[in-house]
Amino acid sequence: AILDRPGEGATMLRTFAILLFCIRLSLGKTSIGMESQPELWIESNYPQAPWENITLWCRSPSQISSKFLLLKDKTQMTWIRPSYKTFQVSFFLGALTESNTGLYRCCYWKETGWSKPSKVLELEAPGQLPKPIFWIQAETPPLPGCNVNILCHGWLQDLVFMLFKEGYAEPVDYQVPTGTMAIFSIDNMTPENEGVYICRTHIQMLPTLWSEPSNPLKLVVAGLYPKPTLTAYPGPIMAPGESLNLRCQGPIYGMTFALMKLEDLEKSFYHKKPIKNEAHFFFRSLKIQDTGHYLCFYYDGSYRGSLLSDILKIWVTDTFPKTWLLARPSPVVQMGQNVSLRCRGRVDGVGLALYKKGEDKPLQFLDATSINDTKSFFLNNVTYHDSGIYSCHYLLPWKTSIKMATHNSVELVVVDKPPKPSLSAWPSTVFKLGKAITLQCRVSHPVLEFSLEWEERATFQKFSADGDFIITNVEGKGIGTYSCSYRVEAHPNIWSHRSEPLKLMGPAGFLTWNYVLNEAIRLSLIMQLVALLLVVLWIRWKCRRLRIREAWLLGTAQGVTMLFIVTALLCCGLCNGVLTEETEIIMPTPKPELWAETNFPLAPWKNLTLWCRSPSGSTKEFVLLKDGTGWIATRPASEQVRAAFPLGALTQSHTGSYHCHSWEEMAVSEPSEALELVGRDILPKPVISASPPIRGQELQIRCKGWLAGMSFALYKEGEQEPVQQLGAVGREAFFTIQRMEDKDEGNYSCRTHTEKRPFKWSEPSEPLELVIKEMYPKPFFKTWTSPVVTPGARVTFNCSTPHQHMSFILYKDGSEIAASDRSWANPGASAANFLIISVGIGDGGNYSCRYYDFAIWSEPSDPVELVVTEFYPKPTLLAQPGPVVLPGKNVTLRCQGIFQGMRFALLQERTQAPLQFQSASGNSADFLLHSVSAEDSGNYSCIYYETTMSNRGSYLSTPLMIWVTGLLPKPSLLVQPGPMVAPGENMTLQCQGELPDSTFVLLKEGTQDPLEQQRPNGYRADFWMPVVRGEDSGIYSCVYYLDSAPLAASNHSDSLEIWVTDKPPKPSLAAWPNTVFQLGKDITLQCRGPLPGVEFVLEQEGEEAPQQFSEDGDFIINNMEGKGIGNYSCSYRLQAFPNIWSEPSDPLELVGAAGPAAQECTVGNIVRSSLIVVVVVALGVVLAIEWKKWPRLRTRGSETDGRDQTIVLEECNQEGEPGTSTNSPSSTSQGISVELPVPI
């Protein structure tokens, strides 16, 4: 190994190095942060014998953790995974036995893995205290010298710590701290303070029970020789695997040199013999772990050493961090202006170079010594030639293989005038009755001053430093067209280009309430003066005519004066209204809560612990008092803002009345409710309370016990048996009287008892008298602003009643906190305002008020829940089925918190009070918006808060916008360059509405939250999507809405499907009327694709060239000579991308004569042809038979006379006529003759 480690004297050298480091810190030269270890300590319920019940606590120093690990003797491990992330956990060991003894350490889990283990806790046999550990720590006081802090950790609280020095019989110092550690300070370390020190502890109550001595610690004063110099070759910044030489050089020969790394003094401590007056420390192959702060010193044979060298930072890295370049005063500069380009990198001791795009060589250099907050690259008197893109790079004077990382660039723009700003109006460009409009002029770089111009008035001009201009429309004088400009500090005489004009519209000449009020006041004053003048003239006329006496004149003058005073009072009343007194609430420090816990529910006095909890998060410490005088003990507040006071087994010395206080920075709280411990076998006396009873209404009587798991019983004076009984419901119970009547009046008390037999009872509580009194109706109670506030906000409570001359009382959680006396000066209704100037975390709670007049009180007002937010992490708010809904539909808003058992509240923007409240046993709550309408549109948010500790609430959730659509005409949605785009290309979705100055929202199917919102000046919003990817494919739509209430929104636009792909999706192919050719009929093939603006092509299997092209996708196919039969497919191409064809459709087969259907047709034809042949043959046979008859007829004709021939002809003729009866030969033989004409 090139770096040597010391053998003998290693411990002394490390101590020596730490002291040298202390001297270095005291001179204020450096401050190195080191990772702190977790803290391990012991807690016990038996202060005088802690080994009888031991619990180990492990606390992380700076961050919450989800896992903790306890190690014993480096072999046994105990895991704890708390249900939520916390700072500390406990490991219960119980009574100390031989199996529990050993060496304990703990770790906690952080993002990079397990932390370093804590300091070693050694548990020895029962009856002995753990051996303390001992180490030193340096501080940085402003005075020269070195102040050394010696820390002694005793593992237990309330111990006495003793510091001993070798050679002294008595301790040199002692301390009784409240925690587990004592700090002994040695100011201005001198050689007299050298020596060996140890630390021991003992219990306060048992001064004879001592711990083992700690390991000895030797202090040596250093810094007797001059400091050396430490240099690195080839440089302090190197790549992994490269070699490094650190040279430590001093002025004295023959000394031993030592090198140490401040981040790890235990493992990185090296020493070397010198070569003359210097030593070389070689690193043959650097690693990332070698990065750190190094220093060196030298010492003689007696370990008398030098001062420390200056700290040298060594950085081992393979890539430099990114550099940043900023332009001052702005990247947009005017011609002739000076510009400074400030380059910032995270590497110390490295130079920088300025480059301009398009040029190979750097423009300027900054070496490592000149880089500070005031040195930058300068461009003086810039011209158009200086415009361009600039960047800066690191400049190393030595060779290394470190890669240069990427860098940001600045584009410098040189113009003759600054570019124009943007001008917008809030809340809209339309004036409302009595409302003003704020015009906002904005620009992206620093500005000296903004100017607003009004086109209708050439002389109008307003100036503003922040760009906000408030425009009113009194008598219609605010309507018109406005524009703005600005100027920068570098050139205050040159104004920028004007913004685009913005027109404000609204009703002209309307009368506001202030205008009417001012006119009424002015008219009343004029009438008052005229009346006074007339009265004076009338008195003078009377004096001359009737000579009225002086007394009558005096009375008249008094009447006139009273008239004037009354008129003035009425005028003041008209001007200012009823004056309401405002009372500031001096909020007391919140009262803490005191209770008891035990491990023995059936006999709690065997082991009792008192707990004190404060609702204020700023509590620093708790104090427990007994009988109001003796200070029992103090405990620091934990993360849960509570402290435990273990009493152990209850004895006679423990009996008494206990209460606790909480301490904050500058205040002490009121005492908690008193807890009285009577003695063994008797439970503490509970506390009973109730609100004033009201006839006919429900009344709850609260009985507060002091132990959990107890049962409660309510008694009424005069009755032996309990009126009501309740089981174990926590530490308090509520007894309910459903309807308060006269029969329910009387004295009530309550008791608690153990859950199982034999019952152990508490003493009865103090009696509570319930008397129904006549009461005024409850007052009206509200806050001027929302009851959900942030810390530091101003809150005013208003309590009012129609009754006159009333006094008011303000309550918080049932306790009186402020009062306002009656005022006889103000006639009419009574009211009082209670003011909290700056709300704190502990000011939340349930507030109410009452008023009274002598002996008659009012009913309590309805409570107002004041919630102070920003204490817990914010929840998330989701909408089901989505944030865009149709009118009349239902929407469920789910507020998802982190902790269970909280109360949730739903808020809507522009609404003062929360819309809904819900208490949930889990960590979420569902709020239902039923049959939504236009009024339900807007931004919603939610909070959760605890109801037991001053209503401490969470941060507000991220606002969720709900749009109720269908109230405005739907927009149109287009895409450029087309609905199909290749991955990595840019795309723009254009949503065109029908109303100006609307807010446009882009939606995507399957995504609940809107993708983007825009509020352009015109009718169209362009949603730019750069570098699209495959997941950007989908079905898009858009809506638009008006910002003015109610937030009316449009219908959805027609859906637009977007494909992000290199090849369009395949089309579909169908045949009409079917796929079988009919005789003389054609078939139409219909090719359909998902994209508009395409050209289709039809292909037949076996043919090389495409068959047909079509723009509508219809192809007519005939079957001439059987050429239409076969398999067909189609594809298409976009007109915007003619070289990209889609995938072919699924094949479709057309059949005809050569197909199966044609064979069926041929069989039918054969059958029909066979039938025709049979019929023709049958006819032929009939004709042949008849033909054979003709020769016989001719022979008979020659042998008979003409009469017989006529008969034969007639016979033949009748046979040829259907439906005619034939004369038989018998009739002829009978002599009946019928002559008929014979046709020729």
TrEMBL record:
Ig-like domain mapped to chain residues: 38-106, 321-392, 419-484, 777-869, 873-942, 969-1038
Compositional bias segments (type: Low complexity): 1220-1229
Pfam families tied to this protein: Ig_2
Stretch forming the signal peptide: 1-28
This protein's record includes keyword Transmembrane helix: yes
TM region(s), chain numbering: 520-539, 551-570
GO cellular component: membrane
Region of interest (Disordered), ranges: 1212-1240
GO terms for biological process, alphabetical: immune response-regulating signaling pathway
Keyword ATP-binding: no
Keywords: Disulfide bond, Glycoprotein, Immunoglobulin domain, Membrane, Repeat, Signal, Transmembrane, Transmembrane helix
Domain of life, source organism: Eukaryota
Protein name: Immunoglobulin superfamily member 1
